[in-house]
């Protein structure tokens, strides 16, 4: 067991103890309540009282069957909620501790800069063949599908990477079905090729396997087999010129490292309330979750883009597989079970674009949640029997990587705890964290449906709908969209229906509050569902939506 894993285990136990102690001391967990409810219910007699027979029958059924079943469901949700708080507390604690002690990937893994770094297309000949040979062969893959608005951005940014041009292959994997867009992408590749770049334009006859299928096909070309490392960028990602110079040395000097992952930043994080909330969530994901996994177990989820893989590790793990819609997560788990380690570079940032409409965001989250649940179904046994990872790492993978994909819902204490631990690593987003908590309550409905579809492999479990992008030109920093701008799109009936239910429950609790009153929180959640049901989330102008 490595020191990082031992430290991670200790911090996890401390986080669990603190979270459970706080839950019990505040009354969030009352272990006598379930017994009391069931006991009181069983003492009710249908024959007692002078009401109508149907009322007596309903009271008896409610006390003996409905109430206990609902209580078990509530407890199941609250157990998962406590699990989430434990995990969030642990991630935030590790992340803060890493910052306080000055932990950096360079302190755990060897890193040495490459000499100077040649620009892609300038001065390589003067350096000579000997200098260029010090650089390994790298291939950069750019998978895309009908990316009219952004294809130039990613191709241009990748072609600007600092790396000897004879040691760099750029592969554009175009699965576009629109002939006009395909022609534009091909012409763009030809234009860069005429400037001396080794850029390949690759297409397929179909879209089997979606992104995973395209990446797998791209690795089958003869020139791809010459490359030691493979960087991947989605069509809306724009790496800085020094991206390879900062990532590849980690792979060169640490033969047990399979992946170096960079952080995402966003070009449209301030155009609407929707994108601001997404930024809050993703900032926490990168600052806490990814950093904690990298600092302790050298494992985290590959984000599917803005990362560099060792080709040997991809092949050792079995290559790209299209059995789920989370091919990145699939490869990451299989690689770590083979004993490979991952590195996250939080100070290396790559610009990208957030989904700009509520519909697009829901589709993206459905794909991620459904794919994660389906992968859990397919890989749980592989994780349990893996021989090249420690038992602690197995627990970490199953707990933080799979179980917490299930939707979590608390009433008052859980959102408050999440607000605190999230704000610790996102102080600049503090003003949007309460809105994010309410927004996540709405998204839990969609993630529940997605998780069930993935676990049971329902009809929609393997659907892939590409997130629509609009490109940099659509975002004007001097003309921000109002926070609550209603879209002209259709009403979302599921959200409206659940908002009515929550508002009814809140009103009932207000009138018949008993010992506990949660109506304020329920009213807020009902309002959140209602606003999202009307698409009042802030969005781009209608000509940019779909």
UniProtKB/TrEMBL annotation:
GO molecular function: glucomannan 4-beta-mannosyltransferase activity; mannan synthase activity
Annotated GO biological process: cell wall organization
EC number: 2.4.1.32
Sequence intervals crossing the membrane: 72-101, 396-424, 493-512, 518-540
Cellular component terms (Gene Ontology): Golgi membrane
Keyword set, alphabetical order: Cell wall biogenesis/degradation, Glycosyltransferase, Golgi apparatus, Membrane, Transferase, Transmembrane, Transmembrane helix
Keyword set includes Glycosyltransferase: yes
Source species, domain of life: Eukaryota
Residues of the Glycosyltransferase 2-like domain: 229-421
Catalytic reactions of this protein: GDP-mannose + (glucomannan)n = GDP + (glucomannan)n+1
Membrane topology recorded in Swiss-Prot or TrEMBL: Multi-pass membrane protein
Keyword Ribonucleoprotein in record: no
Coiled coil segments of this chain: none
Localization: Golgi apparatus membrane
Family affiliation: Belongs to the glycosyltransferase 2 family. Plant cellulose synthase-like A subfamily.
Protein role: Probable mannan synthase which consists of a 4-beta-mannosyltransferase activity on mannan using GDP-mannose. The beta-1,4-mannan product is the backbone for galactomannan synthesis by galactomannan galactosyltransferase. Galactomannan is a noncellulosic polysaccharides of plant cell wall.
PANTHER family: GLUCOMANNAN 4-BETA-MANNOSYLTRANSFERASE 5-RELATED, GLUCOMANNAN 4-BETA-MANNOSYLTRANSFERASE 9
UniProt-recorded name of the protein: glucomannan 4-beta-mannosyltransferase
């Amino acid at each position: 067991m490595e020191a990082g894993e031992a430290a991670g285990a200790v911090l996890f136990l401390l986080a669990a103890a603190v979270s459970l102690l706080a839950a019990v001391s505040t009354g969030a967990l009352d272990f006598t309540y379930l017994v009391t409810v069931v006991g009181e219910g069983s003492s009710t007699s249908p024959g007692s009282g002078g009401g109508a027979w149907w009322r007596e029958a309903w009271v008896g059924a409610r006390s003996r069957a409905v109430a206990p079943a609902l209580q078990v469901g509530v407890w199941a949700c609250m157990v998962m909620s406590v699990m989430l708080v434990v995990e969030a507390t642990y991630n935030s604690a590790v992340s803060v501790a890493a910052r306080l002690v000055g932990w950096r990937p360079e302190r755990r893994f060897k890193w040495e800069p490459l000499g100077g770094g040649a620009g892609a297309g300038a001065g390589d000949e003067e350096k000579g063949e000997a200098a260029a040979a010090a650089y390994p062969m790298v291939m950069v893959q750019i998978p895309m599908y009908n990316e009219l608005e952004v294809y130039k951005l990613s191709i241009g940014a990748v072609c600007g990477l600092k790396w000897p041009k004879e040691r760099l292959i750029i592969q554009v994997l175009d699965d576009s079905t629109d002939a006009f867009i395909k022609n534009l992408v091909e012409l763009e590749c030809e234009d860069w090729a005429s400037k001396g770049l080794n850029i390949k334009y690759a297409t397929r006859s179909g879209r089997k396997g979606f992104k995973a299928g395209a990446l797998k096909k791209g690795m089958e070309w003869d020139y791809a087999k010459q490359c030691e490392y493979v960087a991947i960028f989605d069509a809306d990602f724009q790496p800085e010129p020094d991206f390879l110079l900062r990532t590849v040395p980690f792979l060169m000097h640490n033969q047990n490292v399979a992946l170096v992952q960079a952080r995402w930043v966003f070009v449209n994080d301030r155009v609407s309330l929707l994108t601001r909330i997404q930024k809050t969530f993703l900032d926490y994901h990168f600052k806490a979750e990814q950093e904690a996994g990298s600092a302790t177990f050298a494992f985290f989820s590959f984000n599917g883009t803005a990362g560099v893989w060792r080709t040997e590790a991809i092949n050792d793990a079995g290559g790209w597989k299209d059995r789920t819609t989370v091919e990145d997560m699939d490869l990451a788990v299989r690689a770590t079970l083979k004993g490979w380690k991952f590195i996250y570079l939080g100070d290396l940032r790559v610009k990208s674009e957030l989904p700009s409409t509520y519909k697009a965001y829901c589709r993206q989250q459905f794909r991620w949640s459904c794919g994660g649940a389906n992968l859990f179904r397919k890989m749980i046994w592989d994780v349990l029997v893996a021989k090249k990872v420690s038992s602690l790492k197995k627990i970490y993978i199953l707990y933080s990587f799979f179980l917490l994909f299930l939707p979590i819902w608390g009433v008052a204490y859980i959102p408050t705890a999440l607000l605190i631990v999230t704000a610790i690593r996102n102080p600049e987003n503090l003003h949007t964290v309460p809105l994010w908590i309410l927004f996540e309550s709405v998204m839990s409905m969609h993630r529940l449906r997605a998780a069930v579809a993935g676990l049971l492999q329902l009809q929609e479990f393997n659907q892939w709908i590409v997130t629509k992008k609009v490109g940099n030109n659509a975002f004007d920093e001097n003309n921000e969209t109002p926070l609550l701008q209603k879209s002209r799109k259709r009403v979302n009936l599921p959200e409206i229906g659940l908002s009515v239910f929550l508002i009814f429950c809140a009103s009932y609790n207000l009138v018949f509050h008993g010992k506990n009153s949660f109506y304020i929180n329920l009213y807020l959640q009902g309002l959140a569902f209602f606003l999202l049901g009307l698409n009042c989330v802030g969005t781009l102008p209608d000509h940019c939506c779909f």
